[in-house]
Specification:
It contains 14 helices and 18 strands. With about 450 residues, the chain is of the alpha/beta class. The chain has a 7-stranded mixed sheet with strand order 12-13-14-11-10-15-16, with helices on both faces. The chain is globular, with a radius of gyration of 23 Å. The chain binds nicotinamide-adenine-dinucleotide.
């Protein structure tokens, strides 16, 4: 069995069966058996089923949000927002089965047309930081396009995925279309990656594991999409509304206790505004309410595990340039205070590596050119923000930053209707929006001869 721990109390909150390679093989066999009937479901009926699934998730939203908040240690308000996004995601992609359009292409002596065909059995491997919502970004387009799936949640947070499997069956999704296997990545995830009957792996997780998945998938030429780590820049120019930038900066990096691939963990500040910005940032960081994830007013919960806390602590040795920190509750729980390091050089380890905890590095810059160079001096390229009162400059910088998801005068990263994904070693492919569907379909070309020759 897997003992599922509640990070705010360090207590076991549930036990679930631990799947191994054999269970993965069984799940893939079930998904394979269900595939011909699922892809043959009429587009309108598949759309109706996905809408019914969205309604069923919505009906259990409170229960799912509480489970997610307890298991992942995230504030209940955040968990409620994530479950609402799961519902929205299924509703959005419920529109897809009837809109998977092809083209007709002018050719000689015939008619040429394209079709978007499903891939078959798709393996979905997801992390523990946003368990159900990231699963939905993959599941909804995969199912809408006519694939069947095997979903492997992270071992630390399997509960909402297992609940989803039950909800989907109750809502009328045919048996075998959605299969959940909860087990270790090195066993279950690895088996999915090598399995000859799995056509594609959609993965969200660390860049390190993503590299192994890309290599493993090469053996059977699987399609692969990867949503990996980040070390994103929050770029603050002296002409910005500094109060607004400072008020938004804590949630940009300390949201989900910093365990967020989009965390703007490098705060680049124009040197002439550095002092004013830090003065405004300090009270915002200290005012963050850290504590019980189930308390409505909580803004930051604990880290996911003791191991994660140890890894984060390594980035804040005794001689680290800590300018100020937030507070943490006493007693049980994997707490770590929101910590701001300043000034940091972009070449320091804390500025180069993904810390995946509530630690921000403040890095001064002299001018626009240096800001862009610093933002791009990283192996990652997931997200980023630009704060400036000069719209032309903000757009210029947005175009120059090598990252997939940029926001101007805002922290916003993810919307169901717009593409999400990384440049460079932050990943391959895009999730959400209309573009995600192309990653769950093959493009087929059919030529029909209408004349001789
Ligand atoms: P992880 O890479 O350790 O694990 C992710 C998933 O992969 C888990 O389900 C795990 O069991 C599985 N896994 C582990 N080893 C495997 C293997 N050898 N073969 C197949 N599967 C394996 O990541 P994590 O610690 O769960 O999550 C944190 C990481 O995820 C961070 O790097 C973060 O940036 C990244 N992340 C990225 C995005 C994004 O959209 N770009 C979103 C959230 C998290």
């Amino acid at each position: 069995m897997i003992e599922v721990i509640e990070p705010a109390t360090e207590r076991v909150m549930a036990e679930v069966p631990r799947a191994g390679a054999e269970e993965v093989d069984l799940a893939v066999a079930r998904a394979k058996a269900a595939y011909p009937a699922w892809r043959a479901v009429r587009p309108g009926d598949r759309a109706s089923l996905l809408r019914r699934l969205a309604d069923a998730i919505e009906a259990e939203a409170d229960q799912l949000a509480t489970l997610e908040a307890r298991n992942a240690g995230k504030p209940i308000g955040d968990a409620q927002g994530e479950i609402a996004m799961v519902v929205e995601c299924f509703r959005y992609y419920a529109g897809a089965p009837e809109r998977l359009l092809g083209q007709t292409i002018p050719v000689a002596a015939g008619v040429d047309m394209t079709f978007r065909e499903p891939l078959g059995v798709v393996g979905l491997i997801v992390p523990w930081n946003f368990p159900l919502v990231i699963a939905s970004w993959k599941l909804a387009p995969a199912l809408a396009a006519g694939n069947t799936v095997v979903l492997k949640p992270a071992e630390l947070t399997p509960l909402t995925a297992l609940e989803l499997e039950r909800i989907a069956l109750d809502a009328g999704l045919p048996e075998g279309v959605l299969n959940v296997v909860a087990g270790p990545g090195s066993v279950c995830g690895a088996r999915l990656v090598e399995h000859p009957d799995v056509a594609k792996i959609a993965f969200t997780g660390s860049t390190e594991v993503g590299r192994g998945i890309a290599a493993g998938a090469a053996e059977t030429i699987k399609r692969v999409t990867l949503e990996l780590g980040g070390k994103s820049a929050n770029m603050i120019f002296a002409d910005a509304d500094l109060e607004a930038a400072a008020a938004a900066a804590p949630s940009a990096v300390f949201g989900n206790a910093g365990q967020d691939c989009c965390a703007r963990s490098r705060i680049l500040v124009e040197r002439s505004a550095l002092e004013r910005f830090l003065e405004a940032l300090e009270p915002a960081v200290k005012a963050m309410r850290v504590g019980d994830p189930l308390e409505e007013s909580t803004e930051m919960g604990p880290l996911i595990s003791a191991g994660r806390r140890e890894s984060v602590a390594e980035f804040v040795p005794d001689d680290a340039p800590v300018v100020f920190r937030g507070s943490i509750p006493d007693g049980a729980g994997y707490w770590f205070p929101a910590t701001v390091l300043a000034p940091v050089s972009n070449s320091d380890r804390a500025a180069r590596e993904e810390i995946f905890g509530p630690v921000a590095c403040v890095i001064p810059f002299a001018d626009e050119a240096e800001a862009i160079a610093l933002a791009n001096e990283t192996i990652y390229g997931l997200s980023g923000s630009i704060w400036s009162g000069d719209g032309a400059r903000a757009l210029r910088v947005a175009r120059a930053v090598e990252a997939g998801v940029i926001s101007i005068n805002s922290n916003s990263s993810v919307r169901v209707t717009t593409p999400f994904g990384g440049f460079k070693q932050s990943g391959v492919g895009r999730e959400l929006g209309p573009d995600a569907l192309s990653h769950y379909t093959e493009l087929k070309n059919v030529y029909y001869a209408t004349e001789e020759g």
